Amino acid sequence: MGVHAFKPKAGETTEKITINLGVVDLGQIDLLVQEGFYSNRTDLIKTAIRNQLAAHADVIRETVIRKTFILGLQHYSRQDLEALQASGERLQIHVVGLASIATDVPPELAKATIDSLVVLGAFHASAAVKAALADRIR
């Protein structure tokens, strides 16, 4: 089971969010784009979010450690879960970033090996696995 540093790169998985802004804020963003400070609205919004995350990096780091989260990408393959099942171990998954379960993992195997799942970010798994773990996702 690998943990990978999370830094969005071209072509890497992203999640879409929707925000509502007041017309004055939106107008100011458009003005900065028009003046060449940012290439588009999304560029400004991503930059603002990254700046806020950087400003709070110490709090994020301390919370991740205190709550025993994995920060980044965590992928579970069928082989990983079968090995856990064979050893009698069970997982408590706590991820800030992306947790994913391979598409070939049957729902029964996921249910037999995963006790709890807390993901702050995104969780990718088949619909059947998500349904099987629905009572364990927090």
Please describe what this structure looks like:
By secondary structure, the protein is an alpha/beta fold. The protein folds into two domains: 23-55, no CATH class; 61-136, no CATH class. Helices cover 43% and strands 22% of the residues. It is built from six helices and four strands, in the order E-H-H-H-E-H-E-H-E-H. Strands 1-2-3-4 form a four-stranded mixed sheet, covered by helices on one side. Helix 4 packs across helix 5. The radius of gyration is 19 Å and the shape is elongated. It starts with a strand and ends in a 6-residue tail after the last helix. Mean pLDDT is 89; it is low at 1-10. One of its GO terms (biological process) is regulation of DNA-templated transcription. InterPro entries: RHH_8 (IPR041088), Ribbon_hlx_hlx (IPR010985). This is Arc/MetJ-type ribon-helix-helix transcriptional regulator. Pfam families: RHH_8.
